[in-house]
Design a protein that fits this description.
Layout: H1 2-5, H2 12-25, H3 30-37, H4 41-54, H5 73-84, E1 91-93, E2 99-101, H6 114-123, H7 130-140, H8 155-197
Antiparallel strand pairs: 1-2
């Protein structure tokens, strides 16, 4: 016990509790031990009772002490699994070639956000908020990133793009026609050249 009280590599709570017991063996009273170790006298008394009841295991904290987690492991896994699934509004090409949102229900988001993940989890009867989703994802090592959704455009930008596509399409059509005419003219010249040389 005294060796544990001087240890540098044992768990900190075990070392402090071993010091309490060792100082008691040295003849110090509870109040003096509490003052020396900067804790409450009741803490010293509780530790003495724990060592008397459980022996050396009484130096550590009781297993299962502390607040219970709010979410079960199954709920945490379900929230983590949502990140790997396509968001409900993302367009997916089905086997028949049709393009439709990934899920007909669940919203129209094309990217996962904390709010969208919380809403999807709530749709699976998991009562959870966005801050809890953030904590779960951080603990799982999932990193968020800022994305730029090029699919969301203002009406003005859509009109500019539509005009650009029409102009580009017309220019492409003109270029193709010119190439075809040039190719046909070259074929005619080649043919006439062949007739003259024969």
């Amino acid at each position: 016990m005294r060796r544990l009280a001087r240890s540098l590599h044992a768990p900190a709570d075990w070392v402090v509790h071993a010091r309490m017991v060792a100082r008691s063996w040295d003849g110090l009273r509870t109040a003096a031990i509490a003052e020396e170790l900067d804790c409450h006298p009741q803490t010293v008394r509780e530790r003495f009772h724990a060592v008397n009841e459980r022996g050396l295991d009484g130096l550590g904290m009781k297993p299962g002490s502390g607040r219970r987690p709010r979410r079960t492991e199954a709920e945490r896994s379900a929230v983590s699994a949502l990140v790997g699934s396509p968001p409900p509004g993302r367009l997916v090409t089905y086997s028949d070639g049709t393009l439709a949102p990934a899920q007909s229900q669940g919203g129209d988001v094309s990217e996962w956000s904390l709010d969208a993940l919380a809403a999807a989890a709530q749709a699976q009867d998991i009562q959870i908020g966005r801050s809890q989703v953030r904590r779960i994802l951080r603990q799982e090592g999932v990193r968020g990133r800022r994305t730029h959704s090029w699919g969301q455009r203002t009406a003005q930008v859509q009109e500019i793009l539509r005009f650009t596509v029409v102009v580009a399409g017309d220019q492409l059509k003109d270029t193709v026609e010119q190439n075809e005419r040039a190719q046909n003219g070259a074929d005619d010249r080649d043919a006439s050249h062949l007739h003259l040389s024969t």
